Queue: 2 jobs
Job 1
Amino acid sequence: MPYKEKPIERKYYPIGMVAKDLGVAPSLIRFWEKQFPEIKPKKNKNGKRLYTKKEIERINLIHYLVKEKGYTLGGARAHLSESSPIEGNRIKVIENLTELKKSLLELKDKL
């Protein structure tokens, strides 16, 4: 049986990594941090922001609402205050399906 490398789970993620995964500038995440009280990253001794998985899920939802659905910041804020955990799960499913589609297209190109 071949060796499969297990991805390392982190407890905290730096802002650069979060921004890169979303394809946005770190300054946008810092801006959203001021606009949405739900996003409160820890800061290390050097003042660098560190985000938990829960905060990253919230940022992903904000990104989805604002950038893909076209919500205003006020509309996204209102949606988050009414939002249920089901909405966050829906975002995860969409992301997983997008990654699966990308993998399948790459596999198709190899054939």
Job 2
Amino acid sequence: MFVVGNLIGAVTEIADLILGAYMWLVIVAALISWVNPDPYNPIVKFLYLSTEPVLRPVRKKVGTLGGIDISPMIVVLAIVFIRSFLVKSLMQASHILR
């Protein structure tokens, strides 16, 4: 059973790292959107291509709040919730199985 526990623990740690990195991508993309970025800049393209598939559906459902796009805040809050609830629960389950 310890093998399953170690597998769940490893997958959970990788998921936590990916979620943390993606959260920072969303934050940086939101900050860059406040200035007028060059759309042909490779970094701006990467940020747009990596965050827009998640932000677009949230933006469609929520809309704007007084002209302010709050979709990055909602996505960051969702990531924080997933990291604090799901990832920690899976990590505890992996410790039980070890």
